[in-house]
Amino acid sequence: MWAVVPLKTIDDVDRPGVRIAVGLGSAYDLYLTRTIKNATIVRATAGGGREMIDLFLKDKLEVAAGVRQPLVAYAATNPNVQVMDGRFMKIRQALGTPKGRTAGARYLAAFVENVKASGFVAEALKRSNQSAAVALPAAK
Description:
The protein is α/β, with parallel strands linked by helices. The chain folds into two domains: 2-83, D-Maltodextrin-Binding Protein, domain 2; 94-140, no CATH class. 36% of the residues lie in helices and 11% in strands. It has a five-stranded mixed β-sheet with strand order 3-2-4-1-5, with helices on both faces. The longest helix has 16 residues, at 102-117. It is elongated, with a radius of gyration of 18 Å.
């Protein structure tokens, strides 16, 4: 999340008069819709990414909420915005199988732990320029 007004922390965002740009239907839109009580959510109809940043700039909104890496990259090119410390949510990924397929569920659980323990997930994040993303360690 980044802002052009002197908001100090993520906790400062949910107050009257603060408008938050998000991509329509994005994880941030869904999360903020459930949790924001006082600020106003303004949705970029195209879904997010560059459209959300364009909305933030065009309408001179106070805050943009989205994936940290693209926001950091954009902020590096625009001295008028900054990325706020902290985060208001984590995107947790999941895998699943139909009910009753316990062998498949065990296989998926073992597969996930294997790719985390081997470093594959961390390396894949790094290769896709998501190095600031946090890959959870394998379960013990």
